[in-house]
Design brief:
39% helix, Amidase signature (AS) enzymes
Length: 499
């Protein structure tokens, strides 16, 4: 197995034992990025010199016998909606092309404090609005399992990078499934922590009550270790939780699900789900039962309204958050013909700088918040949100964790749903409720669909602040699946046909 295929925790052990240096590891990753990224478009910016400088510093500290963190020297990719000093941050939009932030996001500060070299910034749907990365102003990322298909979105760049061995770890953000859906269709592990468990300071906001930063990795233990790096209270984030939620790394060392109650969400199975997805999902449940878990059925009737509620709340918050892109303070500025008033410059800049999906959601959100319509639309959506939270609370009285397929289908073809926004939105049917309720969720690869040999993901949900439960059940299921196949998920990945 080459160094590129190894897990982050294996690489961390190799660094400690000095089997490899961080410079050697980081250079190997950068070489693979140089080979694959021109075709996959996983990264928008690759930080060669910075990454090698940071890796060299780690090696020097280790040589001096300095005490370092568990992931010190392991390189990482960062989604391009997280601010980074000295590195262009575009959020996948023309309106921020060339913008170099004067401050780091808190999660970026945390990975730097743990001495993790930054490989670059990954591609995304513009301002994280989308499920395929096709809304990026810089072109879509491709799925390494099938280059004609999407790697999911909005964080398709991070999932594509991790799945194609262009990074052992990545950071993503999840507003309605933007970590979990890409994980499902690329055979990776993606986690949305409890709302407030990870600071949002420095995340270019989409939906402030929905956004959450989380890990993208190739196995559960790696996700747990990265989760522990980025979690914790932050005074710069007013919604940051004050208390610690414990060690996810320790939770990921769990080896038993005996007595665990796993709730199948009635509304997220059956009709509308691809046959191959349902088959792999059912097999995963059978493995858990054989290991001692108890399966119960739960019902969340309000889930039928989740997509409608989300696509009122999220655009409403987006229309407010994106008002700051006014051509005056930072970012793109387009000068119109004739007299250049502030209003005309702002209109010309937004016309040129925002893509179609962003404009669509701004208009929808502004309408939902407008006088005379606020109660009928935004207010009603918030009431549905309360019903979803109540349904989940009842479900967790019967089960320790809830489970469903992460997505109704495997990765769809690029262009297949781009002309039908509603069809694209339906991809998020299983992931959106977690964001509306603020609870944690994990997508874990459970096999390949029989129809197309593409990855299938199972989603686990836990009550707020109980993120550790996801890692406990995820670690056991991952091991059961490896035993079933006698190999890891990524061993099934076809070799990339890259020019």
């Amino acid at each position: 197995m080459s160094v590129l295929n190894k897990s982050a925790h294996e690489l961390a052990s190799m660094l400690v034992s000095k089997e490899i240096s961080s410079v050697e590891l980081t250079r190997a990753q950068l070489d693979n990025i140089d080979k694959l990224n021109p075709r996959l478009n996983s990264y928008l910016t690759v930080t060669h010199e910075l990454a090698l400088t940071q890796a060299r510093q780690v090696d020097e500290l280790r040589a001096k016998g300095e005490k370092l963190s568990a992931l010190a020297g392991v390189p990482i990719a960062v989604k391009d909606n997280l601010t980074t000093i000295g590195i262009e941050t575009t959020a996948g939009s023309k309106i921020l092309q060339g913008w170099v932030p004067p401050y780091n996001a808190t999660v970026v500060e945390k990975i730097l404090s743990h001495r993790m070299p930054i490989l670059g910034k990954t591609n995304l749907d513009e301002f994280a609005m989308g499920s395929s990365t096709e809304n990026s102003a810089y072109g879509p990322s491709l799925n390494p399992w099938d280059l004609a298909r999407t790697p999911g979105g909005s964080g398709g760049g991070s999932s594509s990078a991790v799945a194609s061995m262009q990074a052992p770890l990545a950071l993503g953000s999840d507003t309605g499934g933007s970590i979990r859906f890409p994980a499902a269709v690329t055979g990776t592990v993606g986690v949305k922590p409890t709302y407030g468990a990870v600071s949002r300071y420095g995340l270019i906001a989409l939906g402030s009550s929905l956004d959450q930063i989380g890990p993208v990795t190739r196995n559960v233990l790696d996700a747990a270790m990265l989760h522990d790096v980025i979690a914790g209270h932050d005074d710069m984030d007013a919604t940051s939780l004050a208390e610690s939620l414990g060690s996810m790394t320790e939770a990921a060392k769990n080896d038993s699900v005996k007595g665990l109650k796993v709730g199948i969400i009635k509304e997220l199975t059956g009709e509308g789900f691809q046959a191959g997805v349902s088959e792999r999902f059912q097999e995963a449940l059978e493995l858990l039962v054989a290991a001692g878990a108890e399966i119960v059925e739960v019902s969340c009737p309000s889930f039928q309204y989740a997509i409608a509620a989300y696509y009122l709340i999220q655009p409403a918050e987006a229309s407010s958050n994106l008002a700051r892109f006014d051509s005056v303070r930072f970012g793109l500025r387009v000068m119109p013909e004739g007299a250049a008033t502030v209003e005309k410059v702002m209109a010309a800049t937004r016309e040129a700088g925002f893509g179609a999906e962003v404009k669509r959601r701004i208009i929808l959100g502004t309408y939902a918040l407008s006088s005379g319509y606020y109660d009928a639309y935004y207010g009603s959506a918030q009431k549905v949100r309360t019903l979803i939270q109540a349904d989940l609370a009842k479900a967790f009285e019967k089960a320790d964790v809830l489970v469903s397929p992460t997505a109704p289908t495997t990765a769809f073809l690029l262009g297949e749903k781009q002309e039908d926004p509603l069809a694209m939105y339906l991809n998020d049917i299983a992931t959106i409720p977690a964001n509306l309720a603020g609870i944690p969720g994990m997508s874990l690869p459970v096999g390949l669909a029989s129809e197309d040999n593409l990855p299938v993901g199972a989603q686990f949900l836990a009550p707020a602040r109980q993120d550790a439960r996801l890692y406990k059940v995820g670690a056991v299921l991952e091991k059961l699946l490896e035993n079933k196949w006698s190999k890891s998920m990524l061993d099934f990945a076809p070799k990339l046909e890259v020019n």
